[in-house]
Write a structure and sequence with these properties.
By secondary structure, the chain is α/β, with parallel strands linked by helices. The chain has 2 domains: 2-165 and 352-367, Glycogen Phosphorylase B (Rossmann fold, 3-Layer(aba) Sandwich), CATH 3.40.50; 175-348, Glycogen Phosphorylase B (Rossmann fold). Helix content is 43%, strand content 16%. It has a 7-stranded parallel β-sheet, sandwiched between helices. A 6-stranded parallel β-sheet has the order 10-9-8-11-12-13, sandwiched between helices. Helix 2 (16-31) packs across helix 16.
Length: 369
């Protein structure tokens, strides 16, 4: 097969979907010795996103996430003689008949429209037509599969659940190695801390975590700092303002966008990862933390229970007192910390990009038969 993969999102925004695409393609390049891959790259992105045998690029002029995207994208892709097109960013070309596989990561824009920008809502509003147009749909969790069926009426037999995985770089490392990484990157971090990872935006529910952190300090007399690793997103100012209102500026640190190498060190030195998201289609930070043997307190919303299994303490996302109590429990019990670390490492082994690539290949075959 000659398979086109729309990777323009990586130039548009180097975030979750872009990294999902690169990691999947890298795994496919290692296991697939038969098919040809044409990477549909943004015209301003130089080089080949994944440099491997049987991989080539096609320069696409249609801009990603643009209201005038569809007609030029449909024309440009039609000229490439593709047997199949995979669109990891939900929306395929809607005006040609090339068999399409789409990956749907989550439907937060439908479930929580108040948490997305108008531009994102407009773009992803095409998802109902995309689901009808697609030959096959990849959902990254059973939770997302359920949402696709319930909210969009997609037939069950059209959807394949294929889990994501942590980057193999995430693993336990010793304290000295972690300290060296942080020092080399110029990032100062205390010896122990509570860590949260993710974009600073309403869906990540960081305001609940910050309120719980204030309660943890007041009621349980814990003094560990809270480190928030993630780029500022939509309505981030509300989170910054809450920290100031509570007088926690000296105890809550915003690290900004954090490269994976720094995250590796941060996970390994963290006393606990707190992940309070209201909704996740998959949720990579808990999986990355488990791979690093970091204990976790996690929201019980969306796909997160699927990902962490029995390797985390689960808490309702809006329950501030329960969050404070769970953090106190894990910070105060060394035996529990050790047990959760072991469980996490074993749980993380169940997810791999090679497995995801093999299952994706099978989805490609289904799409053209």
């Amino acid at each position: 097969m000659r398979i086109g993969v729309d990777v323009r999102i990586f130039y548009h925004r180097m975030a979750g979907i872009g990294w999902y695409t690169v990691r999947l393609l890298t795994a496919l390049s290692r296991i697939d010795q038969e098919n040809e891959y044409v990477l549909l790259q943004h015209r301003r992105q130089t080089g080949l996103l994944v440099n491997a045998p049987r991989f080539s690029r096609a320069t696409i002029f249609a801009p990603a996430h643009h209201r005038f995207e569809q007609w030029p994208l449909s024309i440009e892709t039609k000229r490439l003689n593709l047997d199949l097109i995979h669109c990891p960013d939900f929306i395929p070309p809607l005006h040609n008949k090339i068999p399409a596989v789409i990956t749907i990561h989550d439907l937060a824009f439908l479930l929580y429209p108040q948490f997305v920008t108008a531009a994102s809502a407009r773009y992803y509003g095409q998802v109902e037509e995309a689901v009808k147009r697609a030959s096959r749909i990849i959902a990254v969790s059973q939770s997302t599969r359920h949402d696709i069926i319930q909210l969009l009426g997609a037939p069950d037999n059209k959807i394949d659940v294929i889990y994501e995985a942590a980057d193999p770089m995430f693993r336990p490392i010793d304290e000295d190695a972690a300290r060296d990484i942080l020092q080399q990157s110029g990032l100062e971090a205390p010896d122990r801390y509570i860590l949260a990872v993710g974009t600073i935006e309403p869906r990540k529910n960081l305001k609940t975590l910050i309120l719980a952190y204030a309660l943890l300090r007041e009621r349980y007399n814990h003094s560990l700092p809270l480190l928030l690793a993630g780029a500022p997103g939509w309505l981030a100012e509300d989170v910054y303002q809450l920290v100031a209102t509570l007088g926690l500026e000296e105890h809550v640190r915003f690290l900004g966008k954090t490269p994976n190498r720094q995250l590796l060190a941060l996970y390994n030195r963290a006393a606990v990862l707190a992940h309070p998201a209201r909704y996740e289609g998959f949720g990579l930070p808990p999986l990355e933390a488990m791979a690093c043997a970091t204990p976790i307190v996690c929201s019980d919303a969306g796909s997160l229970p699927e990902v962490v299994g029995d390797a985390a303490l689960l808490v309702q996302p809006e329950d501030v007192e329960a969050w404070a109590a769970a953090l106190h429990q894990i910070l105060s019990d060394e035996a529990l910390q050790a047990e959760m670390s072991l469980r996490g490492v074993e749980r993380a082994k169940q997810f791999s990009w090679e497995k995801a690539a093999r299952e994706t290949l099978e989805t490609y075959r289904k799409a053209v038969t």
